[in-house]
Design brief:
By secondary structure, this protein is of the alpha+beta class. The protein has helices at about 50-60, 85-110, 115-135, 175-180, 190-195, 225-235, 255-275, 290-300, 310-315, 315-325, 360-380, 395-415, 420-435, 450-480, 485-500, 500-510, 515-525, and strands at about 5, 15, 25-30, 40-45, 70, 75-80, 145, 165-170, 205, 245-250, 280-285, 330-335, 345-350. Helix 7 (about 255-275) runs parallel beside helix 11 (about 360-380), helix 13 packs across helix 14 and helix 15 (about 485-500) packs across helix 16 (about 500-510).
């Protein structure tokens, strides 16, 4: 019989599973209005547990927190209200199970050594399996995995396999995915577009534990060139809010209602953060034929004096792909800090369906615009810029995207655009699945672009996305609980502008990133993976 402690994420908060209810500093609030009522749920296989016997037994031994019993398909849930004493519960259950095994052993001792040996082996196998699952060793240990005949260990040793068989198909993976997804280094444009079409197939794959790149986290001293450039940006007002007009370029096929909602999200963000720029915003729709002029304006605005075609073929192609490949509801920011008169901009493609029809998901478009503007705000506080800047200055992926998701989530919750509780829960589901499907990965593996390249060779863009967005989001939910929302949204960035993100992290959160990574991993070990995923992969 296997008992699993589930931390209630849909009702109250996430806590470290240390047995006792943890202090408020060790919790991510999910629904603040229910702060006083903690629920703890124990999930048992229905065919392996006599709950009436179990409750009677632990009560007889002094347990006084009588649970509510609910059936959930093939499981039975025991729901306890706080306060919770996990260590006492586990101890009493173990005593009861020992007594029951002893009674059963006395009753069946004449059945022979053969059955006894089988029982010992089965118990040992179950213990090993549960140990693997408990430590998030990954789905790769499950039977029926069909290993993909592709050597992942080329540029990097990505997993501990002599043949580089780092990934495989789950037993129930679709034949279409197996036949269609292309495993190859240096994909052509056509091959890349094919894999974008089948990108959700990655969630039918399992991966052997990732071999991370260990980074030296000693901040790199600044060069004189970097200092001079930072002074130039300060003089121009790059890191200061200004009273400057925002300009827009809008594709003609976007409905006015969608445009106004998108602008509303951005302006609400500016009310909190200030107006940074000069900034131009580009809204592209779903008609490729009407965006060429917008692409040209984007390239001329952000890269004056440079060959226009280079930008048109690069970011311009990305804008076209947003219009005809992706289902909408996305965007990206551009920070042209290096030109004579630095400017900021971002591109937004409003929410659309599979057939590229506008969905009028107005609140989602508001949140995307708030998210992209937060990137403008972030980058306004990155002063030390030249390439190869070294550790401690250029924002890691998880810091940049995680804080932006935290901001859009909380701003959206404030204005009724989205339910913070549901977004937090969604991020936690993603993380739980991520940890078993891609074992060994952590947010610390996104600190440098070399690390990012290594991740992409291991499990592609879809894998990196989870680390940046969902892992990063919950990381900042934890940090906010330890400090305050203002510490993340307002306090961190001016310090990062002067001292770099790494030192700013130490100052604002009173801990090193190494200490936080360890604490974060401890927290994540409490999350329970369930299959199939509650998320619709499409």
């Amino acid at each position: 019989m296997k008992k699993l402690l589930i931390i209630s994420i849909s009702l109250i908060m996430i806590s470290y599973c240390s047995g006792e209810t943890s202090s408020s500093n060790d919790q991510v609030m999910v629904e603040e209005e229910n702060e006083e009522k903690d629920l703890y749920i124990i999930d048992y296989p229905a065919d392996e547990i006599d709950v009436d016997w179990l409750i009677e037994c632990i009560v007889s031994k002094g347990w006084d927190n009588i649970p509510k019993i609910e059936g959930m398909g093939n499981t039975v849930n025991l729901i306890f209200e706080g306060p919770w004493n996990g260590s006492l519960y586990d101890s009493l259950v173990d005593e009861c199970e020992e007594e029951r095994r002893a009674d059963e052993g006395d009753h069946h001792e004449d059945e022979g050594d053969h059955h006894e040996d089988e029982g010992i082996e089965a118990k040992k196998a179950e213990e090993i399996l549960q140990e693997n699952l408990g430590s998030y060793a990954g789905l790769w240990q499950e039977p029926g995995v069909e290993w993909i005949d592709f050597n992942f260990n080329t540029e990097y040793i990505l997993c501990d396999d002599p043949d580089g068989y780092c990934a495989g198909w789950e037993q129930n993976a679709s034949q279409e995915c197996k036949d269609s997804y292309i495993f190859k280094r240096n994909l052509t444009q056509e091959e890349q577009e094919n894999n974008w079409k089948y990108e959700s197939c990655i969630y039918q794959m399992v991966f052997k534990p990732f071999n991370p790149l260990v980074e030296d986290r000693t901040p790199t001293p600044l060069t004189q060139e970097q200092k001079n450039n930072a002074e130039r940006l300060r003089e121009y007002g790059w890191n200061k809010a200004q009273d400057i007009e925002i300009t827009f370029r809008v594709a003609s096929d976007i409905p006015e209602e969608v445009v106004e909602a998108s602008k509303d999200g951005m302006y609400k963000a500016i009310e909190v953060l200030g107006n940074y720029g000069p900034m131009r915003v580009y809204y592209i729709g779903n008609d490729v034929d009407v965006i060429d002029d917008i692409i040209l304006d984007f390239c001329e605005f952000n890269y004056p004096g440079e060959p226009v075609q280079r930008c048109v073929d690069d970011q311009g192609q990305g804008m076209r792909e947003m219009a005809y490949i992706y289902p909408g509801g996305n965007g990206f920011a551009q920070h042209s800090w290096y030109i004579e008169k630095p400017v900021q901009s971002f591109v937004h493609n409003p929410s659309a369906g599979e057939n590229n029809e506008f969905m009028y998901e107005l609140n989602r478009d508001r949140m995307v615009n708030a998210h992209e503007y937060f990137h403008v705000y972030q980058e306004a506080h990155v002063l030390y810029r030249p390439s190869h800047i070294g550790f401690g200055w250029d924002l890691p992926r998880w810091v940049g995207e995680g804080s932006a998701v935290y901001f859009e989530t909380n701003l959206g919750n404030k204005h009724g655009w989205g339910n913070r509780n549901e977004i937090v829960k969604e991020s936690l589901y993603t993380i739980a699945e991520h940890r078993v499907r891609f074992p060994g990965l952590s947010v610390g593996d996104t600190e440098s672009e070399e690390q990012v390249q290594r991740i992409n060779q291991y499990c592609f863009q879809m894998c990196l996305g989870g680390l940046q967005y969902e892992f990063g989001h919950i990381a900042f939910e934890l940090l906010a609980k330890k400090t305050s929302p203002d510490a993340i949204i307002l306090d961190f960035w001016p310090i990062a502008a002067e001292y770099g993100w790494y030192e700013a992290f130490n100052q604002v959160f009173s801990m090193t990133t190494e200490e936080f990574y360890e604490e974060y991993e401890e927290f994540l070990s409490c999350l329970l993976y369930t299959s199939p995923s509650p998320r619709d992969r499409g």
